[in-house]
Amino acid sequence: MKKTITILLVLVIGMVGVFAAASSGLPLSTETSTIDVTSTVTQFALFGVTADTVLDANFASQALFSGAVNTTITKENFDMLTLASAVEVGKLSGINSLATPVSLTITTTDFVSGTNTIGLTVSPESESILAAASSAFGTLKNTSITLVETIPGAAALAPSGDYSATITIGLTV
Fold first, then answer.
1. How far apart are CA 3 and CA 6, in angstroms?
2. Which DSSP state fits 61?
3. Verdict on whether the full-model pTM lies above 0.85
4. CB 3.0–4.6 Å: which of 37, 47, 141, 150 could bond 94 by disulfide?
5. Cα 16 to Cα 12: distance, rounded to the nearest angstrom
C-alpha cells in the first residue's frame, strides 16, 4: 500500500508540474506563419490563317493552336471570274492570354499583272481577339476572309497575264 501511495504521489506531483508549466505564463506564439506561392503566366497573342476550319480542341493551348494555323497560305489557280461576288480565300483565327483584347487589321493589294490592275476589297477589314478571362484564353475562331472586285466585272475583262495579290494581317496590342 505504501508503494501505491508513493506511486500516486509521484504521479500527482508530476502532473502538477505539467499543468503549472502550461499555465505559468510562458510565452506562446501569437504570430502567424505563411507560405507565399507565386507564378508567372507568359503573355501571348497569336493568330494565323488556314484554308480549313480550326477545330475547337486546338484552341486549348498555345502549342496546339500554333500547330493548327499557318503564317501563310497560297491559293493557286484562283478563278478570278468568281470575284464578282465575295469569295472566301481563307480563315483567320487567334488566341490571346492578355487581359485585354487585341486588334487585327486586314488589308489587300490589288490583283496586278505587269501594268494591269484589278481592284480588290477584303472583308472584314478588322477583327479582334477577345481578352482572356478566368481560366480561358480569348479567341477568334475561323473568321472567313473574303475578296471581291471593286469594279464589278473587271476580272472578266482583264487582259491575259499572271495576276497576284497579297492579303496582309497585322496585330495591334
1. 5
2. S
3. no
4. 47
5. 6
